[in-house]
Amino acid sequence: MRTASCPSPCSSPSIPKRSLTTHSVRFRSSRRRRSFSTLTTGSHRIIRTPSAAPRVVGKGRCFHRGFPEYFDGIVAGDPVYDLEAIALSEDWGVQQIKAITPTPSGSPILYPAFPVADQQLFTRAILQACDGLDGAVDGIIDDLKTCQAHFDPATYVFSDTAQPLQCTGAKTVTCLSPGQVNAVKNINQGPRNSLGQTIEVPAGAAVHPHPDNTVMGYPYDGGFMAPAGIPSRKIGTPTSTPGDFALGLGQIPYLWLSPARPSFNPLDFDWDTDVADLTPESPLVSYSTSLNIEKFRNRGGKIIWYHGLSDPGPSVAFTIEYYTALAKKSGGLRHAQDFSRLYLIPNMGHCSGGPSTDQFDILSPLVDWVEHGVAPHEIIASGRNFTTAPSTRSRPLCPYPQEARYIGPAGGDLSVASNYHCILPPGIDDHGNGHNKN
Ligand SMILES: [Ca+2]
User: Fold this and answer.
1) Are residues 162 and 243 in the same domain?
2) Which one of 52, 223, 233, 416 is separated from 307 by 20 to 30 angstroms, measured CA to CA?
3) Buried (b) or exposed (e) across 382-406, using 16+ Cβ within 10 A?
4) Is residue 26 classed exposed, middle or buried when 0-12, 13-18 and 19+ CB atoms within 10 A define those classes?
5) Residue 289 domain-assigned?
6) How far apart are CA 69 and CA 92, in angstroms?
7) Residue 347 maps to a domain
8) pLDDT < 50 regions, the chain
């Protein structure tokens, strides 16, 4: 067995380091070599590809689709299979903050548009509205579906103060301006043109079958406005620019507009007219959205995805869409789960961070699945950065579409995983539909 890991922020401290060695691979599309850590046990090979899943899930030239015989197991963390769509999600989000940014010197500095105090106010509202829906006020929204359906920051009224989240008059410290609320709602719903229509990216539809290639927004998870959430990528801080400037926004002029427009300002992307200039043929996306992974599956391959629900870059909505489409193509969720599992991690940002259980070992369950045929179910994770007591906790990660629920005694210990278990929420069909993506 061999395992490998792409160099990315998505590193897990729980990987059995004694089993890892390092080598590097040069992709045919790139002059840059990528380092991988590998593990060989018996006759099986496993690759761990955090945050690099597009190169694994897609491209046709990599691992489970293009080289289905190379690996017996794959762990794909916070996957980004459609970079064109993600770049547009990111651009749209930054545009929403820019739209409410004061420009006293002529150049927008986004941070003042949504400072930390207002970010915390939003987090207080969404947790007050949604945290308890799952039966436990623990700072984690495990019933995300109900939260998405009912939480509206434009109309929410704090239950303890009777103050509306959205200001009814002048902006104060106890409310968000209508512009701020509108920005949040737009980031949540994803890009729209002037007619209110969603945007579909051509590169994501380059192969058949493929999942929905609509550009997605970001779900109202508990970490949505935590520092590792939307602020890190679309708002920034007094000392750091929004991360998306160096990621999706930087890609648009060169990679996603055809012909390339080196002088194009991605903050000026027009959702009516510039969409027609998106390339359908980028080698960075082609095949990556393909649902055709039968070769990998038929030879017994196993794959585990995981994704932070508060990932502010590649939205978890894309991963849910891919997995749901894969379930449908596989003949139902149960058939998809025969060779693949998806774990969603509440409050976690891109690969880690946030008040979340972002410390976990998914590699060992994958090894058990590949080597011994023991499919993974609950995976115990831990975290040390919860903002309310207890600050250090363990809890189970649940195979999608299952969700964690508190089963301990009233007022019991929120820090131990044994007080939680995974349940299948009502309203989920055999294809996994029913879990709101954003
Ligand atoms: Ca909760």
Assistant:
1) yes
2) 416
3) bbebbeeeeeebbbbbbbbbbbbbb
4) exposed
5) yes
6) 39
7) yes
8) 1-9, 11-42, 52-62
Q: What's the one-letter identity of residue 175?
A: C
Tokens at residue 148, please? Answer: 């998405």
Cα 429 to ligand 1 centre (Å) = 24
Same domain flag for 311 and 195: no
> From the CA of 69, how far away is ligand 1's center (Å)?
42
Element (H, E) at 86: helix 83-98
Output the pLDDT for position 109: 85
**How far apart are alpha carbons 367 and 344 in whole angstroms?**
20
Among all chains, which residue has been given the structure tokens 């939680």? 420
Shared-domain flag, residues 167 and 296: no
Overall domain count for the chain: 2
Res 437: pLDDT: 54
CA of 127 to the centre of ligand 1 (A): 8
Tell the residue number behind the tokens 């590809």, with chain if given: 49
- Residue 353 CA to ligand 1 center (angstroms) comes to 18
8 Å CB contact between 400 and 406: no
* Contact call for residues 225 and 123 (beta carbons, < 8 A): yes
In a domain, 402, yes or no: no
Closest C-alpha among 183, 155, 159 to residue 167: 155
CB 274 within 8 A of CB 199: no
Q: What is the full DSSP assignment across 173-190?
A: TTSB-HHHHHHHHHHHH-
Same domain for 373 and 335, yes or no, is yes
Strand 44-48 to strand 73-77: parallel, antiparallel, or no bridges (unpaired)?
parallel
- Domain range for 95 is 84-277
Give kind and range of the element (H or E) at residue 238: none
| Residues in Cβ contact with 240 at an 8 Å cutoff, skipping those fewer than 6 apart | none
Please state the pTM of the whole predicted model: 0.88
Phi/psi region, residue 5 (left: phi>0; alpha: psi -120 to 50; beta: rest), is beta
Task: Give 278-293 pLDDT, tens digit per residue.
Answer: 999 888 887 889 999 8
User: pLDDT tens-digit profile of 233-262?
Assistant: 999 999 999 999 999 999 999 999 999 999
The pairing of strands 340-345 and 302-308 is parallel
Residue from 62, 6, 52, 2 nearest 286 by CA: 62
pLDDT value for 262? 95
Distance 276 CA to ligand 1 centre (A): 43
pLDDT of res. 23: 39
| CA–CA distances in Å: residue 185 to residues 40, 182, 189, 193, 230 | 47, 5, 6, 15, 12
pLDDT of residue 435: 58
24: tokens are 């590097």
